[in-house]
Amino acid sequence: MFQQILHFLIETLAAFFVYLLLARFHFQWLRVPFRNQVGEFIVVATNWIVQPARRVIPPLAGLDLATAVAAWLLQLVALVILVALSRPGAAPGVAALALVALIDLLRFSLYILSFAIVMQAVLSWVNPHTPVGPVLDVVTRPFLRPVRRVLPPIANIDLSPVVLLIVLQVLLIPVWHLRNLVGGAL
């Protein structure tokens, strides 16, 4: 029972910070302004790991590589701890876990985009003038634009978020299978 509780707490805490680090990476990649409540929260909550990482890892082609590497390392450390807890005495295959951590970053990124699309759709109905609206628009626009070119609004109803969510769910299926193939029963 205590092992299960510890497993849950480690997984939850690590996922929380990995999601924040990935959101920070994607915000910078998509040029989302950080001068809003969401951006400021992400920066304050992740500076403890990003600032030291930036001293060691330089940016690459305009991408904040330090933030991406920090997210990957944090997920890797969490996986190593979780495997060590679930199989005491067995040495975890670090190379396989490193690949699983990378696959998890892809999976989490797809979840972040899915969440942004759902939030944008819900807020457009409930509170279209919310301060978070422009942030969600900048995050989702590059992914919705190609879908909108193929599927324009029908009777002023934009179905592109639904289509993109379906595409993202379809993409998650092979990602899950790849994770299970590489990681086994993690």
Overview of this structure, please?
The protein has 186 residues and is mostly helical. It has one domain (2-183). Helices cover 78% and strands 0% of the residues. The protein has 6 helices and no strands. It has helices spanning 2-29, 37-56, 65-86, 94-126, 133-150, 160-183. Helix 1 runs antiparallel to helix 3. It starts with a helix and ends with a helix.
Topology:
Blueprint: H1 2-29, H2 37-56, H3 65-86, H4 94-126, H5 133-150, H6 160-183
Biggest pleated-sheet summary: none
| SS-based class | mainly alpha
Helical fraction = over 70%
Mean pLDDT: 92
Question: How would you describe this structure in keywords?
Answer:
186 residues; mainly alpha; 78% helix; globular
Give the gist of this structure.
The chain is mainly alpha-helical and 186 residues long. It has helices at residues 2-29, 37-56, 65-86, 94-126, 133-150, 160-183. The chain has one domain (2-183).
